[in-house]
Design goal:
This protein is α+β, with helices and mostly antiparallel strands. The chain has a single domain, classed as 2-Layer Sandwich (GTP Cyclohydrolase I, domain 2), CATH 3.30.1130.10. 34% of the residues lie in helices and 35% in strands. The protein is built from four helices and four strands, in the order βαβαααββ. A four-stranded antiparallel sheet has the order 1-2-3-4. It starts with a strand and ends with a strand.
């Protein structure tokens, strides 16, 4: 088994519980780790024998464009879509960071990590 990681995917989106967040938006950083059997691709050197990183990125981007109040909601949508689109990924870990959240004080980000 191998771990395919796509880290630091950056999106501008409108997720949040506050009306202001849904109007002005903010930056989000997404990391995704997929546990995949890559042994066939290691021998064939053929993209069809592994997970296509570009397809994964497009899937994450599409889900990030759909506004949610909670990171938990958008994160579960992403993981459910990854699981159904890439069944060869036996496990997945997703981390979403919301940069500069409006919580009344200075902080870099809040984050959520989900698995399947």
């Amino acid at each position: 088994m191998s771990i395919i990681s796509i880290e630091g995917m950056e999106f501008f989106a409108y997720h949040g519980c506050f009306k202001e967040e849904q109007m002005i938006g903010t930056k989000f950083i997404v990391d995704l780790y997929l546990t995949v059997d890559t042994s066939k691709a290691e021998k064939t050197d053929n993209l069809v024998d592994t997970v296509n990183y570009q397809q994964v990125f497009r899937l994450v981007k599409k889900e990030m464009e759909i506004t949610s109040k909670l990171l938990e909601h958008v994160g579960r949508r992403i993981l459910d879509n990854v699981k159904s689109t890439f069944p060869q990924a036996e496990k997945a870990t997703l981390k979403i960071r919301k940069m500069n959240p409006p919580l009344g004080g200075k902080m870099n980000f809040v984050s959520l990590t989900l698995n399947y």
